[in-house]
Amino acid sequence: MEAGSKDHPPMLAPGWKDNEVPTSEGSLITTTERVHETYKNVSQEIRDQLNAEAEAVQIILTGIDNDIYSIVDACPNACEI
Fold first, then answer.
1. Can you give the pTM of this predicted structure?
2. Which 3-state string (H, E, C) describes 9-73?
3. Which of 51, 59, 78, 79 has a CA-to-CA distance to 42 between 20 and 30 Å?
4. What does pLDDT average to in each consecutive run of 10 residues of the chain (81 residues)?
């Protein structure tokens, strides 16, 4: 059976969490529930963070033109940028 197939969860996939769910109050028996977080089922705040990180990586990978460094160095303060 392959990891990631429909009938077997991926073993090393990030985002898997173990949540302990008590069966009843005062009971020592707990059940482990697996929750797989995907882009579709996380909050909008987490999606915004993921999008910002992806955009930052894209900017770094594409490179910033050297002219931007000259422009920033020429400005004595941030208000002039």
1. 0.38
2. CCCCCCCEEEEEEECCCCCCCEEEEEEECCCCCCCHHHHHHHHHHHHHHHHHHHCCCCHHHHHHH
3. 59
4. 54 54 62 80 90 88 72 72 58
Number of domains observed in the structure of the chain: 2
Which of 22, 24, 42, 40 minimizes the C-alpha distance to 32? 22
80 in a structural domain: no
**To 5 degrees, how large is the angle CA 33–CA 39–CA 43?**
80
Type of residue found at 72? V
